[in-house]
């Protein structure tokens, strides 16, 4: 199975596919899932990755599975690692 050419960071998916369509602010969503706004914003900006605990929080709040978030993160991480190796 091929990996996507330019995978999206899970934070970008969260923002564009969940928060914006639902018209939910980062502050509102952070409160809903028990995170700080800073933590959520770091995820959305790609400065933080999705951990197993974060995946469980997101899945519960959004009606997805934790595997969705973990798979998005793993795809992102593998793409970045591959790019680093090619550049070296």
Overview of the molecule:
The chain is mainly alpha-helical and 88 residues long. It has one domain: 434 Repressor (Amino-terminal Domain), CATH 1.10.260. Helix content is 70%, strand content 0%. It is built from five helices and no strands. The chain has helices spanning 10-22, 26-33, 37-44, 52-62, 66-87. α1 packs across α3 (37-44) and α2 (26-33) packs across α3. The radius of gyration is 13 Å and the shape is elongated. The relative contact order is 0.16. The model has no long low-confidence stretch (mean pLDDT 95).
What key attributes describe this structure?
single chain; 88 residues; 434 Repressor (Amino-terminal Domain); mainly alpha
CATH topology: 434 Repressor (Amino-terminal Domain)
Helical content (DSSP H or I, runs of 4+) = over 70%
The first-to-last residue Cα distance is 25 Å
Total beta-strand segments: 0
Helix-strand category: mainly alpha
Output the helix-strand order. HHHHH
Brief summary of the model shown:
By secondary structure, the chain is mainly alpha-helical. 70% of the residues lie in helices and 0% in strands.
SSE layout:
Blueprint: H1 10-22, H2 26-33, H3 37-44, H4 52-62, H5 66-87
């Amino acid at each position: 199975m091929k990996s996507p050419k330019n995978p999206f960071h899970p934070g970008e998916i969260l923002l564009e596919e969940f928060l914006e369509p639902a018209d939910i602010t980062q502050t509102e969503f952070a409160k809903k899932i028990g995170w700080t706004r800073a933590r959520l914003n770091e995820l959305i900006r790609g400065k933080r990755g999705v951990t197993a605990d974060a995946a469980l929080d997101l899945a519960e709040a959004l009606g997805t599975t934790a595997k969705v978030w973990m798979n998005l993160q793993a795809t992102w991480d593998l793409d970045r690692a591959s790019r680093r190796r090619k550049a070296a």
